[in-house]
Amino acid sequence: MSAAAQADTPRLAGEFARSRAAVVGAGVLALILFAAICAPLISPQNPYDLAQLDIMDGKLAPGAKGMDGVIFLLGTDDQGRDMLSAIFYGLRISLGVGVMSTIAALAIGMAIGLIAGYAGGWVDGLIMRIVDLQLSFPAILIALVLLAVLGQGVDKIVIALIAVQWAYYARTVRGNALAEMKKEYVDAARCMAFGAARIIFRHILPNVMPPLIVVATVQVAHAIALEATLSFLGLGMPITSPSLGLLISNGFAHLLSGKYWISFFPGIALLVTIVSINLVGDRLRDVLNPRLASHYGV
Amino acid sequence: MVAFAVRRLTQSVAVLLVMSLLVFIGVYAIGNPVDILINPQADQAEIARATAALGLDQPLWRQYWTFLSGAFAGDLGKSFVANIPAVQLILERMPATVELALTAMVIAIVLGIPLGLLAGLKPESWTGKTIMAGSILGFSLPTFWVGLMLIMIFSVQLGWLPTTGRGTTVEVLGLHVSVVTWDGIRHILLPATNLALFKLSLLIRLTRAGTREALAQDYVRFARAKGLSMRRVVAVHVLKNIMIPIVTVVGLEFGSVIAFAIVTETIFAWPGMGKLLIDSINVLDRPVIVAYLLIIVFLFVALNLIVDFAYTLLDPRVRLAGARS
C-alpha cells in the first residue's frame, strides 16, 4: 500500500461507516468468521465425533433437553447431532470453499485477462470468444455439467466453482488492462526494454487489481450460494464435509413432517452469511470505486 | 442486413458444433456406464456383449461421429435406463418445464414492471425503499432455500398448497397443461413463484433504473411542460423507452429460467426435464445427459439469435451501426 493510500484509509473507513446497513453487515460478518474459525472451541459438541452423539437425542425440537440434561438450543438432527455445532462446522466448510475458489478464480482470471489484453491479436480473440461463450450460459448449468463429468469431492467442487468464475474476472481485467496500456507509464516501461512479463505483472497488474478485489468480495457470496445449491442437489460436497447446503439437504426429508429446524437454521445461517457479505461488498464498491456497477449496469 | 444475418447464423452453427464436441468429450469422461447397468456378478463375456451393444467399445472419434450424424437426424442414443430414445424422453418432459418457466416469467413481468416503475418514480419514499430492499433480498436468497421456505409455510404450516407434482393436467393441442385446471394452478403456484423470484428482482431493478434515467431526459420534461398528465407521460413516454432493454433481458433470461428450473423442479418434484437431468446424472445415464445439454445449448443459441434479430428490428440505432460495419 502506498503512502497516499494509507492516508486515505481513515477517510474511506469514515465513508464506509456512513451506511448503517454496511456497518451492521460488517459486524455480523465478523461474528460469522469468528464462529467459523473457532468452531471447535465454541461448539457445545463435536458434531462429527460419533462418541458424543446419542441416537436417543434424535430430532429434538429447539431448546429441548437431551438424555444427559444438555439443552440443544437449535434442536438436533435425526442422529442426535446438535444443530448449533453442525452449523458452526458447516460455516467453516462453506466459507472455506467459497473463499478458496474465489481467490483461485481471481488469480487465474486475472492472469488470463492480462495476457489477452497485453497480447492482443488472435490470442485475445480466442480467449475472449471462450469467455463470451462461457458467460452466455448460467453458472449453475456449467457447474452441474462439470460435476457430472468430474464426480463428487471437495476438490471437484472447488474446480467447478473456479471454472464458473474465472471468465468474469478475465473479461473485466482485459478491459481495464487495455485502458491502462494506453497510458504513458506503460510506454515508459517499454522504452526501458522491460520484458512483457515484467510489464504485465509489475506495472499493469497493480493498477487493475483494486477494483477486482471488491468484485471478488461479492463473488464469495455467489460462490457460497452456488456450492450450497449444488450440495442440496446432491452433486456438491461429499457426506464427509457437511457444508451448510448439505445440512439443509439432509433436513429437507424431515421438513415435510414438520421438523423444520433441521434445515431451517442452517438455511438462516447461509442467508445471514450471504446477505452480510453482499452488504459489505456493495458498500466497499460504492466507497472505493463509484464507477463500477454491478451486473446489467443497475 | 442479409450479411449480418448470414454472419450471425454461421457463428451460431459454429458454437453448436464446438459445444457438441465439448459436451461429448466431457460426458465421455464420466465413469463406465456398463459397471452400473449390469449385474456385478456378470462375467467378462457378458460385460463385453453389453459394451458392444451400447457402442462403448468403439474408438472415441468414431463414437463422436456416430453421435454427431445421429444428432443431425434427431437421434442422440437410447437412455440406458429407460431404454427409449433420449430425445424422446426429454421432449416428453419439456412441456412441463416450459410451462413452469413461462408461468414464472409471467409472474416476474406482471409484478416486476409495475413495482419497478413505482420504485423508480418515488425512489426516496417508504414504498420505493421497501421494494428495493425486497429486490436485494430476492437477489441474495438462494433459490432452493426460498423453495424450502415456501413449502414449509404454505404446505406444512398452513396446508394450503400441495408440494409435489403437476396435479390434474388437461390435454391442450396434444400437450398436457396444468394451468387450465384449478388443481393444476394450485400445484404450479409455489414452484412458479419460487422460480420467478430472481427474475422478479432483476426486472424491478431494470425498470427502476430505466425509469429514473428516462425521467431526467428532456423529452419527459417537455411532455410535462406541454401539460400532459404524469400518468400519460409515464404510460406512454417513459414505458415505451424502457421497454427495449426489458424485452432484451426477458428474452435472454428465458434460457436461464429453464436452467434454474433444474433446482425448482428437484425441490417440488415437478416432472420436467431439469429433474430428469439430475436423476440421469445420479445414475450416469449418459445419452440423456448429453441430449439434455445439447437441447439446452441449442435453445440458448436460438434465443440469442432471436433476441439479436429482434433488437435490430426494434432499435434503428443498432441497425445502422450494423449496416456500417
Descriptive report:
The complex is a heterodimer of chains A (about 300) and B (about 325). Chain A is an all-alpha fold. Chain A has one domain (about 5-295): MetI-like (MetI-like fold, Orthogonal Bundle), CATH 1.10.3720. Chain A has 11 helices and 2 strands, in the order αααββαααααααα. A two-stranded antiparallel ribbon of chain A has the order 1-2. In chain A, helix 4 runs antiparallel to helix 5 (about 120-135), helix 5 (about 120-135) packs across helix 7 (about 155-180) and helix 10 (about 245-255) packs antiparallel against helix 11 (about 260-290). The longest helix of chain A has about 35 residues, at about 85-120. The model of chain A is unreliable at about 290-298 (pLDDT under 50). With about 325 residues, chain B is an all-alpha fold. Chain B contains 13 helices and 2 strands. Chain B has helices spanning about 1-30, 35, 45-55, 60-70, 85-120, 125-140, 145-155, 180-215, 220-225, 230-270, 275-280, 285-315, 315-325, and strands at about 170, 175. The longest helix of chain B is centred in the C-terminal third of the chain and has 39 residues, at about 230-270. The model of chain B has no long low-confidence stretch (mean pLDDT about 80). The chains are: A mainly alpha (about 300), B mainly alpha (about 325).
